[in-house]
C-alpha cells in the first residue's frame, strides 16, 4: 500500500509549487549567471583566459586571496570567541553584545565604508596622526582588510550562536566535572561539536572578499570591453568605497573611474 | 561523608533554596525527590560545584569544598541527556577524565584505554568501545555516561534524573541494574528524580523537597507510611483528603476497611483494574470530596452508581498550618 501520505498536497499543487520555486530560481539566479558566462566567453575561451592573465586581473586575484587569508582567520577566531561567550556564560551586557555583532548586517555597506573613511581618512579622526607617521590605512590593503573583517564578522557568530545554544552547556559541564580545564574543554569538546558549522562558516566568510572582488570592477578584466555590463552587475560596497581612490595601486586604478 | 550546612541559593529574585541541611553517610544511596521547581537539581549541582551557593557550606569528607570548582571536587556527574561527546568513540568518552589529567597523574594511553575497557565491562558494554555514541541506544548511552563518570574514581556519584530520557521498560531495567551496581561498588551516590516510585525503589533514604525546602528525610518505607507534612503525604504515593473543621485527614486508597455501617459513603462513578486491585473513584456522600479506593480484586468489580461504605483504618491528621497532630488515628 503506497498511497499518498495524509500530510502531502495533491500532485497538481506539488507540481505548481516546485515550478514556481524553480522558475524564480531560474530567473533571478540561473539566468544572470548564464549571462555573465556567455558574455565572458563571447569571443571564445582564448580571450577569456587571456583576460585572466592581465596584470590587473592577477593583481586583483592576489589581493583578494591576501584579504581572505587575513580576514577569515581573524573572523573565525573572533566569531568563535564571541559565540562561546554568549552561549556558555552569563554576564551583564550580553544582549548589547548580540546586537553589536549583528550591526554590520543592518548597516548599509556604503555607510560602513564611510565610517572607516571618517576614522582613517585624511580629515578623519586619526587622519592627521596617520599622515604624520606615514601610515596608510584607507585606500590601501589595511583598509580593505578592515572593511572585509567588518562586513563578514557576523557570519561566524550568527552561524554558531544558534548551534551552540541548541547544544546547551551539558557537554562542557560534563567535561569540567571530569577534571578538564577551560582550554581543554574548549579544544576537545566545544570546538569539535561546532566543527561542521565552523567549516561552513569559513566558506561564507571567504565568499565575502570574492564578492567584493567582483564588485570592485576587477570583473572588468573578465568582462573584457563591456564595462557597462560590469557596472550593472556590481555596486558600491564597503570595500569599493574604501579602496576606490586616485592612487596608483592596481585595484584602485580600476576603481578610480567610479 | 557529605555535610550540607544552611545552603541558600537565589536566581535573581527567585529563591531556589532556603537553607538546606543534609548529612549523607559514606556508601549511602540518596534520592532527592520533588516536583519541578523544588530545587532538587539546583542542590545536586551545588554539591557537584556546577553551581555556587549564595550562603552555607558544602563539606565532602570533612573538607570544606564550598569554593572549589567542579573540576577539583572529584565527583562523578551523570546528566539526564547523557552529555556524551558525540565526536569521540565510546572508549575515548570513558577515558576522557583520564586523558585531561596533567603531570604525574597522567596515565599512558594504553593504560587509559585498558581502564576504559574495564569500566565498559563493569557497565556491561564490553566490545562497544570503538562505536560512537550516536550508534547506541538510550540505555546504553546512559551506561557509557556512568562509566565515564566512574573513570575518575570519584568520591561521590551524582545523577541528575538519570532515567528521565528513557522509555518505561528500559528505565525499569536500568534502575534495577543501577541498584545492583551501587551494592557492588558501595560508592556514595545521590540522584535527583521527580518519580516517587524510582526514589522508593532505589534509595536508602529519600529526601523529599518542595519549594526550596526539605519536607522530610527518611527511609522509603518511613516516608511512605509516615509522611510528616501534607505535601509529602500527597506527593509520595496516592492520598485521599478529608477536610475537617480543624484540618485535613489523609489516608491512602488501600487504607480502608469496608463496613456496611461505615462512617463514609462513596458514590462510585468510575471503576478500573489497577494491577491487583479494583480502583473505585467517586464523590463522598455529604462532603462531596473526590476519593479513590482500592478494593480486593478477588471480589466482584464495584458497579457504577453503587454506594460503598467504609472506614479509613489508618489515617493521618494534619492541622491547617501543616503540623501533624496524630501519627495514626481510628
Automatic annotation (TrEMBL), chain B:
GO terms for molecular function: ABC-type sulfate transporter activity; ATP binding; ATP hydrolysis activity. GO terms for biological process: quaternary ammonium group transport. SMART domains: AAA (SM00382). It comes from Novosphingobium fuchskuhlense. This is Sulfate ABC transporter ATP-binding protein. It comes from the Bacteria. Transmembrane segments: none annotated. GO terms for cellular component: ATP-binding cassette (ABC) transporter complex. SUPFAM superfamilies: P-loop containing nucleoside triphosphate hydrolases.
Amino acid at each position: 500500500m503506497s498511497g499518498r501520505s495524509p500530510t502531502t498536497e495533491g500532485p497538481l499543487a506539488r507540481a505548481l509549487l516546485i515550478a514556481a520555486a524553480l522558475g524564480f530560481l531560474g530567473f533571478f539566479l540561473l539566468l544572470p549567471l548564464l549571462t555573465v558566462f556567455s558574455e565572458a566567453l563571447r569571443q571564445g575561451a582564448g580571450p577569456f583566459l587571456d583576460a585572466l592573465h592581465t596584470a590587473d586581473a592577477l593583481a586583483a586575484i592576489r589581493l583578494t586571496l591576501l584579504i581572505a587569508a587575513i580576514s577569515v582567520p581573524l573572523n573565525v577566531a573572533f566569531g568563535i570567541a564571541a559565540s562561546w561567550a554568549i552561549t556558555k556564560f552569563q554576564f551583564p551586557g550580553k544582549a548589547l553584545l548580540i546586537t553589536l555583532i549583528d550591526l554590520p548586517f543592518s548597516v548599509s555597506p556604503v555607510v560602513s565604508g564611510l565610517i572607516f573613511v571618517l576614522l582613517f581618512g585624511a580629515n578623519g579622526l586619526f587622519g592627521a596622526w596617520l599622515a604624520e607617521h606615514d601610515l596608510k590605512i584607507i585606500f590601501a590593503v589595511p583598509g580593505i582588510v578592515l572593511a572585509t573583517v567588518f562586513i563578514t564578522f557576523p557570519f561566524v557568530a550568527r552561524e554558531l550562536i544558534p548551534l551552540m545554544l541548541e547544544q546547551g552547556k551539558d557537554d562542557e559541564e560534563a567535561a569540567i566535572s571530569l577534571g578538564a580545564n577551560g582550554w581543554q574543554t574548549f579544544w576537545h569538546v566545544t570546538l569539535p561539536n561546532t566543527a561542521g558549522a565552523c567549516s561552513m562558516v569559513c566558506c561564507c566568510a571567504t565568499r565575502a572578499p570574492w564578492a567584493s572582488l567582483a564588485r570592485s570592477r576587477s570583473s572588468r578584466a573578465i568582462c573584457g570591453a563591456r564595462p557597462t555590463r560590469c557596472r550593472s552587475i556590481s555596486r558600491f560596497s564597503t570595500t569599493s568605497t574604501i579602496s576606490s581612490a586616485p592612487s596608483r595601486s592596481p585595484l584602485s586604478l580600476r576603481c578610480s573611474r567610479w | 561523608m557529605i555535610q550540607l550546612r544552611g545552603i541558600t541559593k537565589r536566581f535573581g529574585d527567585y529563591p531556589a533554596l532556603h537553607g538546606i541541611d543534609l548529612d549523607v553517610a559514606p556508601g549511602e544511596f540518596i534520592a532527592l525527590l520533588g516536583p519541578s521547581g523544588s530545587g532538587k537539581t539546583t542542590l545536586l549541582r551545588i554539591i557537584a560545584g556546577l553551581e555556587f551557593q549564595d550562603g552555607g557550606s558544602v563539606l565532602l569528607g570533612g573538607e570544606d569544598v564550598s569554593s572549589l570548582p567542579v573540576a577539583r571536587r572529584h565527583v562523578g556527574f551523570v546528566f539526564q541527556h547523557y552529555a556524551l561527546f558525540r565526536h569521540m568513540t565510546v572508549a575515548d568518552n570513558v577515558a576522557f577524565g583520564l586523558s585531561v589529567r596533567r603531570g604525574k597523574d597522567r596515565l599512558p594511553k594504553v593504560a587509559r584505554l585498558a581502564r576504559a575497557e574495564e569500566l565498559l565491562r563493569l557497565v556491561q558494554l564490553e566490545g562497544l568501545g570503538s562505536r560512537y555514541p550516536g550508534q547506541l541506544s538510550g540505555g546504553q548511552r546512559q551506561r557509557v555516561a556512568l562509566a565515564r563518570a566512574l573513570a575518575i574514581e570519584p568520591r561521590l556519584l551524582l545523577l541528575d534524573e538519570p532515567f528521565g530520557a528513557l522509555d518505561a521498560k528500559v528505565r525499569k531495567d536500568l534502575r534495577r541494574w543501577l541498584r545492583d551496581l551501587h551494592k557492588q561498588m558501595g560508592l556514595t551516590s545521590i540522584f535527583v528524580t521527580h518519580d516517587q516510585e524510582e526514589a522508593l525503589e532505589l534509595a536508602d533514604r529519600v529526601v523529599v523537597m518542595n519549594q526550596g525546602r526539605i519536607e522530610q528525610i527518611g527511609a522509603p518505607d518511613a516516608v511512605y507510611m509516615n509522611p510528616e507534612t501534607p505535601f509529602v503525604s500527597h506527593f509520595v504515593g496516592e492520598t485521599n483528603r478529608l477536610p475537617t473543621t480543624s484540618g485535613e485527614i489523609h489516608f491512602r486508597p488501600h487504607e480502608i476497611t469496608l463496613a456496611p455501617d461505615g462512617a463514609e459513603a462513596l458514590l462510585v462513578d468510575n471503576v478500573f483494574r489497577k494491577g491487583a486491585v479494583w480502583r473505585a473513584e467517586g464523590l463522598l456522600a455529604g462532603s462531596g470530596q473526590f476519593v479513590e479506593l482500592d478494593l480486593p480484586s478477588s471480589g466482584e468489580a464495584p458497579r457504577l452508581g453503587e454506594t460503598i461504605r467504609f472506614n479509613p483504618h489508618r489515617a493521618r491528621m494534619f492541622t491547617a498550618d501543616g503540623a501533624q497532630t496524630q501519627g495514626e488515628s481510628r
